[in-house]
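Hi there,

I know you've been waiting on this one. I reran it after we fixed the sequence typo, so this is the corrected version. Both the input and the resulting structure follow.
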Amino acid sequence: MESFNLQFLYCIMIIAIGYGLKRSNLIKEKDGEGLSRLLFNLTLPCLLIVTFNGITIQSSLIVLIIAGFVYGLIIASVGFLFFRKSPRKIKGMVRMMLPGLNIGLFAYPLVEVIFGHEGITYFAMFDVGNAFIIFGLSYFIASFYSEVEEVKLEAKTILVKMSKSVPLMTYLLVLILSIIGIRLPQPIIDVSEIISKANMPLSLLLLGIFLTFTFEKKNLKLMGHYLIVRYAVALAFGLACYLLLPFNEMVRLTIVLGVLLPASVSVLTYSVEFKYDKRFVGTLSNLTMVISFLLLWGAANFLL
């Protein structure tokens, strides 16, 4: 456990370095957008290629895909009930933020230092179900409540958006190859392994660069309601799965830790596309990062 806490401390230090670089104006927040694209479109796909190379897909791993998807549906349903009396724009903004989880940037660096590549495999499977929620359900919600008249919500639109997600397409590719037993050529694996080593430190630096603490008092009540719904449902679902599912420890740990992760970074993109309050969405997303980090540390210390 001492080694585990030390790894968390290292992660905090790297995040603090990223935040310090932004505060000192050596790196600007807009620079983080380019770094984010690099992580999502290169280092993360390479990490997935290395992680899934040669693994055997077991039934317990398929359960993680289902769990990631079902959790998204459940918390979205709770959000529909809880915020049903809110103004239309508020409904769209908070409801689109509830279902998705930030696994690619937030979870992987922590999981990699704690559980190694085995842990990445489990969380990657969980993220497959989560990806369909982010690019399907969250996008649907954001579009449905949008005041942007030219936006047309069609199945084709959602499918096109999903097909443009490099991480999601990589998930599906490596998953299919693993199921049918085809291995990628060794040079591709070797190059991917070299690039994938940059994913953990760059992801943590990016979290620090995007970290901000600006609040508008008028939004505090709404933020509080959102956070209560998000983490109450997460804790209830995670503990139920951990105590009741008849699968190995790592499967149950993945679910209970996975649902505690912060809001997906995609909501920032959706807030721009559908004309929601970007400052509110950004601030609330940052709050979930801080709270999730503390909850993950506490949960991991308790369960491991």
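Quick highlight: Residues 103-144 form the longest helix (42 residues).

Best,
R. S.
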